[in-house]
């Protein structure tokens, strides 16, 4: 067993534990995808709410899911949850029908 240690080609002083690079040192490593998807989700959900466009509301839900999936756990979840709830409300409001006024029977 001691002869096995003598034939080990690895150099113990050259082995270092991997540490992932931080974004404070290199800001180019930060992924802007969740922020862009969050902004797109807000825009599409507002279009879905105001213009009653169903496809805009569904794209807003899709963008919210992508934003949630690509976000880091350290990010603020309040803005993401508000964007998600806004997109869900845009879908619900676009499918709700406005009641028609009753016409007189004569």
UniProtKB/TrEMBL annotation:
Q: Which UniProt keywords apply?
A: Membrane, Transmembrane, Transmembrane helix
Question: Pfam families, per this entry?
Answer: ASTER
* UniProt region (Disordered), positions on chain: 1-31
Q: Which GO terms describe its cellular component?
A: endoplasmic reticulum membrane
Query: What GO biological process terms does the UniProt entry carry, in alphabetical order?
Result: protein insertion into ER membrane
Q: Where are the transmembrane segments?
A: 39-68
**Which family does this protein fall into?**
Belongs to the Asterix family.
Checking PANTHER family in the record gives: CGI-140, PAT COMPLEX SUBUNIT ASTERIX
Q: What is this protein called?
A: PAT complex subunit Asterix
The protein's organism comes out as Erpetoichthys calabaricus (Rope fish)
Designated gene of the protein: WDR83OS
